[in-house]
Design brief:
Blueprint (H helix, E strand, L loop, with lengths): L12 E6 L16 E6 L20 E4 L18 E7 L17 E6 L20 E6 L17 E5 L3 E2 L3 H5 L6 E5 L3 E2 L2 E2 L11 E5 L5 E2 L11 E5 L19 E5 L3 H16 L6 E4 L11 H6 L3
Parallel strand pairs: 1-2, 2-3, 3-4, 4-5, 5-6, 6-7, 7-9, 8-10, 9-12, 11-13, 12-14, 14-15, 15-16
């Protein structure tokens, strides 16, 4: 990185993609910086970041690669920081997950790697009362535990490669404002899931991608306002839950690389709704076709997979 950049003391936005080193860069000189985006040119290369990179006083939005993410939270409380993705958590030191140092985060991406995490490693997430979007992805982790509770204001949650039990879903289902949930790459494992009554009351968008789920024991009461259901590579799931034709808010069921009986089950729900006078549901099997491009830009940005 050109050393002259460090002298641009009025710089507010800085984005850099490189295979060079930024570890020794004196980014702390950029006192006016509000947005920082650092990424490696190739996935094989991992940037080494300065340990004080999050201490800049006016930072609002920070984005790193998962492999190059920072695992040092600010030394002092940073009230301006709103976006942090990705932040690396390891099992070496639970003190690095004291999220009270960034109390006003609205969007957070956590990449977990390394040894077994303490049971309370992510419990301070509950102190992020402004947090609306959370992504959690694990790498080489022997065991991952959900925090005891999430911020009540959380609206969007994505879990990837976490290998949780479906029984842990009760913690997520109780979130009062959750309207988008994405479960990717065996976020939850096990052949059977039975949701509980009174959960997912605000969920509008639900994605399950790469799952060994076989039996989904749910009904319309468990997802009363669901609008979009996306199932990808759910090869063992043969039928959608009973009475899903009574989820009258459903607008889209999208299936990708799922068994034919699941497609048939979705078509039966569509026909049942039409018989009741509800014409809005679209069933889309995209296993061999491309998605249409006529969806609004607002929908594409809000529900980007």
């Amino acid at each position: 990185m050109p050393s002259e950049i460090e002298n641009l003391v009025h710089l507010r936005y800085f984005a850099l993609t490189t295979i060079g080193s930024v570890c020794n860069s004196q980014l702390f000189k950029l006192k006016s910086l509000q947005t920082l985006i650092l990424s490696a040119w190739t996935k094989e290369y991992q940037l080494q970041l300065p340990c004080d990179v999050l201490d800049l006083p006016w930072l609002r939005h920070v984005r790193f690669d998962k492999g190059s993410s920072s695992f040092y939270l600010p030394d002092l409380v940073q009230k301006n920081l709103q976006t942090l993705s990705w932040f690396k958590v390891t099992g070496r030191d639970s003190r690095t997950t004291n999220f009270t140092k960034v109390p006003n985060l609205k969007e957070l991406g956590i990449y977990i790697e390394g040894e077994v995490l303490p049971n309370n490693a992510l419990d301070s997430l509950a102190e992020l009362h402004q947090l609306e979007k959370l992504k959690v992805k694990t790498g080489r982790v022997e065991r991952f535990n959900l925090p005891i509770c999430f911020p009540s204001n959380l609206k969007q949650l994505t879990l990837s490669n976490t290998y949780l039990s479906w029984e842990d879903m009760d913690i997520i289902g109780k979130l009062p404002n959750l309207d988008l949930l994405k479960l990717k790459d065996f976020a939850f494992c096990g052949p059977e899931w039975t949701p509980k009554d009174g959960e997912f009351l605000q969920l509008r968008f639900f994605l399950i991608e790469h799952s060994d789920l076989e039996c989904w024991n749910a009904n319309a009461n468990h997802f009363p306002v669901l609008e979009r259901l996306i199932l990808r590579y759910c090869l063992d799931l043969e039928n959608l839950p009973n009475n899903f034709e009574e989820v009258y808010t459903l607008r889209l069921i999208e299936l990708d690389n799922c068994c034919s009986s699941l497609v048939t089950s979705a078509m039966e729900i569509q026909q049942a709704q039409r018989g009741l006078g509800y014409e809005g549901l679209v069933v889309r099997d995209v296993t061999k076709i491309e998605l249409p491009t006529n969806e609004s830009s607002k929908e594409r940005s809000e529900y980007a997979i």
